[in-house]
Design goal:
Blueprint lengths: L9 H8 L2 H18 L3 H4 L2 E4 L5 E3 H19 L4 E5 L3 E5 L7 E8 L1 H5 L6 E7 L7 E8 L4 E6 L3 E4 L2 E2 L11 E5 L3 H11 L5 E3 L4 H9 L5 E4 L5 H13 L3 E4 L17 E4 L2 H11 L10
Parallel strand pairs: 3-5, 11-12, 11-13
Antiparallel strand pairs: 1-2, 3-4, 5-6, 6-7, 7-8, 8-9, 9-10, 13-15, 14-15
Helix pairs in contact: 2-4, 7-8
């Protein structure tokens, strides 16, 4: 992925240079089959304890994660070494545990949507050469509702279903702004702050898809009303950046934000710096990152 990896071990190189796109596509096929089997709301509303991310874990989340880990185990069997960071299992080392490579996975971003059979939910997978958000080298987001594949490599641009993706809107300013983590009490202060600044708001229920919608120029901007985790944003923030969008992560900032599952931060993105500055000012009224348990 990058020349700076030349001095790294062969196992690390194999991890960074693996066919991640093929791996993600195999996961998507298997997850589609799972969703076809578990069609109704009742079938998707079965809980299995609490995941490492702190949320109640749905059985469908765990089955989706199992699908991803089966593919990761096959890759590790070929000699690749990395640490997976996943919403349900937490951190899992593949190899001797010393590799700098991180594979950040959210098998279903938008779990509530998936449980209620709302189509907008996604598979997210990011591959990083180190432990920080700024070191993400590859980002993959698949929208199961629209059947759209967002993919980016660091320094090589972003693509939507194989076609170059550019963060370009109609040029009307903040016509549509996406707000995520949309509990009423969280978004009301943001809606008030957006009054007179934005024409319409949307809440997809998936942070990753909102970021990708900025990347595609569908949203002029997006912001979180509650601090998110690395699994929610690591892949999509690269898609947005490689498409030309401006992206910001709250303290300690995008480049240094940890990929660990216990890290929490706000995310915002926009088609240009001026619009980003506007939504960042609005985001000052959001729940502080430290308020997240």
């Amino acid at each position: 992925m990058s020349g700076k990896n030349d001095s790294r071990s062969p196992a690390v190189k194999r991890a960074l240079e693996a066919d991640w796109l093929g791996l993600c596509r195999r996961v998507v096929v298997a997850q589609r089959e799972l969703f076809d089997r578990e069609r109704g709301i009742a079938a998707r509303t079965v809980y299995e304890g609490v995941g490492e991310g702190g949320d109640r874990a749905l059985a469908i989340d765990r089955r989706s994660e199992d699908i991803v880990f089966e593919e990761l185990e096959r890759l590790a069997a070929q000699g690749a070494e990395f640490t997976a960071v996943s919403e349900e299992r937490g951190e899992a080392a593949f190899g001797d545990g010393a590799s700098e490579v991180r594979v950040v996975v959210d098998p279903i971003d938008g779990s509530l949507n998936a449980r209620r059979t709302i189509p907008s939910h996604s598979l997210c997978l990011a591959v990083a050469s180190g432990p920080a958000m700024g070191e993400v080298e590859l980002g993959y987001v698949y929208d199961f509702g629209a059947r759209e594949e967002f993919f980016a490599r660091r320094g090589a641009g972003a693509r939507l279903n194989g076609i170059e993706l550019r963060a370009e809107g109609p040029g009307y300013g903040l016509e549509i702004v996406g707000i995520e983590s949309a509990k009423p009490e969280r978004i009301l202060p943001l809606v008030e702050a957006l009054t007179g600044r934005a024409y319409r708001i949307r809440a997809l229920g998936s942070i990753a898809l909102s970021l990708c919608y900025v990347a595609a120029g569908r949203f002029d901007a997006m912001l979180t009303a509650r601090a998110c985790r690395s699994v929610d944003a690591a892949a999509a923030q690269l898609v947005a950046r490689e498409a030309g969008a401006a992206v910001a992560v709250s303290e300690p900032g995008l480049e240094l934000a940890s990929l660990r599952l216990d890290a929490r931060y706000h995310v915002a993105a926009a088609l240009d710096d001026e619009m980003l500055a506007t939504v960042l000012a609005v985001q000052q009224r959001a729940e502080p990152a430290g308020a997240h348990p």
